[in-house]
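TICKET: design request
STATUS: open
ATTACHED STRUCTURE:
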C-alpha cells in the first residue's frame, strides 16, 4: 500500500505517543496489516535510536535559560477599574470581539471559503495531541458549564450515547483568529468534532470531503454547528440529524 502524508503524520504521532488510546489501537491494527507502514516504523525508530546514541545532546546555555525563565514568568495585568477574575473575563471578552472582527479578514471574502479547511485542521491537530479534549467527561452537565465564562456563548450539548455517539468531552479551538467551543463525540473508534461558530459563517452548500474527512454543517439560532470526522458521510449525516433532534442541556 502506498503511504500518504497523513500516514506519515499519524506514524510519527504514534511513535511519539501522541495518539489517544482509541487511535493507538486502530493504528496498531493497521501496522499489523500494512507491511510498508510497519517497515517505515522500523526505519524511523532505528534512525532515532542511532541519533540518540551517536549525536551529542544539546544543552541550553545559562544565559538562554535565564531569558526563557524571564519570558515564561507570569506578568500581572489589570484593566482599569477591574482586578482578578473580573479583569480576566473582560480581557477574554475583548479578545473574542477582536477575534470575531479579525476572522472576517483571516478567512477571506464572504467569511466562508476556508472555514471547512480550518475546522479539519483543528480536528487533525486534536487527534495528534495526547488528548483530544480539554475537559474529559461523558456527562453533558459537566461539559457545558466548563465553557461558561471562557467564551461569550456555550454550545448545545446533547446526550447521544443511546444513538451510538457517546460524548467524550470538549475543548476550545481557534478558527481563523476566533476561539470557538468544540464538543467531541465518538462513533466506535472514530472521533467526531462539533464546533460552534457564528451562523454568518455557514457555507450554505454541501461541503466536499477534505483530506479524507467529511464535514457536515447546520444552523441553530445564532450559531452554526460543524461536525468533522473520518466517519463515512451517511453516518456523519445521521449523527448531525441526531444532534439536531436531541434534547440539549438547558
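STATUS: resolved
RESOLUTION: sequence designed for all positions
ATTACHED SEQUENCE:
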Amino acid at each position: 500500500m502506498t503511504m500518504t502524508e497523513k500516514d506519515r503524520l499519524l506514524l510519527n504521532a504514534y511513535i511519539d505517543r501522541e495518539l489517544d488510546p482509541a487511535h493507538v489501537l486502530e493504528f496498531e491494527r493497521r501496522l499489523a496489516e500494512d507491511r510498508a507502514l510497519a517497515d517505515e516504523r522500523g526505519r524511523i525508530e532505528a534512525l532515532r535510536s542511532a541519533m540518540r546514541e551517536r549525536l551529542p545532546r544539546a544543552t541550553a546555555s545559562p544565559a538562554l535559560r535565564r531569558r526563557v525563565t524571564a519570558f515564561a514568568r507570569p506578568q500581572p495585568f489589570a484593566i482599569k477599574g477591574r482586578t482578578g477574575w473580573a479583569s480576566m473575563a473582560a480581557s477574554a471578552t475583548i479578545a473574542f470581539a477582536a477575534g470575531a472582527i479579525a476572522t472576517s479578514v483571516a478567512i477571506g471574502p464572504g467569511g466562508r471559503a476556508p472555514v471547512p479547511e480550518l475546522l479539519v485542521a483543528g480536528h487533525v491537530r486534536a487527534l495528534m495531541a495526547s488528548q483530544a479534549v480539554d475537559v474529559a467527561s461523558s456527562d453533558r452537565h459537566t461539559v457545558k458549564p466548563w465553557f461558561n465564562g471562557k467564551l461569550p456563548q456555550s454550545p448545545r450539548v446533547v446526550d447521544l450515547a443511546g444513538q451510538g455517539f457517546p460524548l467524550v468531552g470538549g475543548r476550545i479551538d481557534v478558527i481563523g483568529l476566533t476561539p470557538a467551543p468544540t464538543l467531541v463525540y465518538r462513533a466506535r473508534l472514530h472521533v467526531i468534532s462539533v464546533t460552534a461558530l457564528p451562523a454568518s459563517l455557514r457555507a450554505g452548500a454541501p461541503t466536499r470531503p477534505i483530506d479524507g474527512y467529511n464535514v457536515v454543517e447546520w444552523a441553530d439560532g445564532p450559531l452554526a454547528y460543524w461536525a468533522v470526522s473520518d466517519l463515512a458521510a451517511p453516518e456523519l449525516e445521521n449523527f448531525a440529524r441526531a444532534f439536531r433532534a436531541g434534547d440539549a442541556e438547558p
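CLOSING REMARK: The domain at 85-245 is CATH 3.30.200.100 (Phosphorylase Kinase; domain 1). Residues 40 and 46 are 10 Å apart (CA to CA).
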